[in-house]
Amino acid sequence: MHQPTPLDEATARTWLAGAVEEARTGLAEGGIPIGAALHGPDGTLLGRGHNRRVQDDDPSAHAETAAFRAAGRQRTYRGTTMVTTLSPCWYCSGLVRQFGISRVVIGEAVTFHGGHDWLAAQGVEIVLLDDPGCVAMMRDFIAENPALWNEDIGA
Question: Secondary structure of 4-56 in the HEC alphabet?
Fold first, then answer.
């Protein structure tokens, strides 16, 4: 799988801030606070979005799919980076693998350990930031909305 140009931590954290803004927007709308952004090989923001399962009554409206859709059709996804506030679920990990997204930047995997180990085994570069703000946002949400959280992760 084609690897994108190296990513320094400062850039990864700047990109994560955009995904966090999306997560906060989703929370303010009454949804699940997960945000994502897709960046091109040169770092250009292609699209971003947030989980809208609750708002749209659509179980497929995950943050990564929203960012992917907002990016529009690309000739190739090689060299692109998906940035997400939470380790991607199997559904979103499949999207990354299906379309050949080269790298995933993850805010945290403490509250949910999704498919990122599998993605790494498939040649996708994984950057796990262990961001305390992302962990706190999800922990607060899960504590206040356990039934909604369990619905979201298919528990």
Answer: CCCCCHHHHHHHHHHHHHHHHHHHHCCCCCCEEEEECCCCCEEEEEECCHHHH
Task: Match 């989703």 to its residue by tokens.
Answer: 26
Rounded to an integer, what distance in angstroms lies between the CA atom of residue 16 and that of residue 93? 18
Reduced to 3 states (helix: H, G, I; strand: E, B; else coil), residue 120 is helix
> Catalytic site residue 125?
no
Pairing type for strands 45-50 and 35-39 reads antiparallel
pLDDT in tens, 71-124: 999 999 999 999 999 999 999 999 999 999 999 999 999 999 999 999 999 999
Tell me which residue of 84, 93, 64 sits closest to 12, measured CA to CA. 84
Q: What is the DSSP letter of 113?
A: -
Which of 64, 108, 125, 144 is the catalytic position?
64
Q: Over the Cα atoms of the chain, what is R_g?
A: 14
Q: What is the pTM of this model?
A: 0.94
